Amino acid sequence: MSAKLTAEARDAALAQLSGWTLRDDGTAIGRRFVFTDFSEAFAFMTRAALAAERIGHHPDWSNSYRTVEVSLTTHDAGGLSELDFELAAAMDRIAAR
Ligand SMILES: C[C@H](O)[C@H](O)[C@H]1CNC2=NC(N)=NC(=O)C2=N1
Q1: ipTM metric
Q2: Is residue 33 part of a domain?
Q3: Which GO biological-process labels does this protein carry (predicted)?
């Protein structure tokens, strides 16, 4: 598992991303991905699931039609770790291609 980041490290990591916001309690980051249709949304989820398996870190997410709502946290650490930011960056790359 990956250790919980300090508030300073978390804020610095968040500043490297765009489109992700810190959840109110500071223990998770979230982003809403909106695609052109369900097929694109589900293709993203399939690719992101493979990335999550590779990293060994998994999203909390939901899908409604062409929208995928993602929340990332490190359950084992009770907050945000480097793995959340690694997975967020991987998801951004997948959504952009
Ligand atoms: C043993 C295994 O690495 C852990 O259970 C991992 C798997 N994926 C995980 N994903 C997330 N988001 N949080 C975790 O704490 C977590 N733990």
Answers
A1: 0.92
A2: yes
A3: tetrahydrobiopterin biosynthetic process
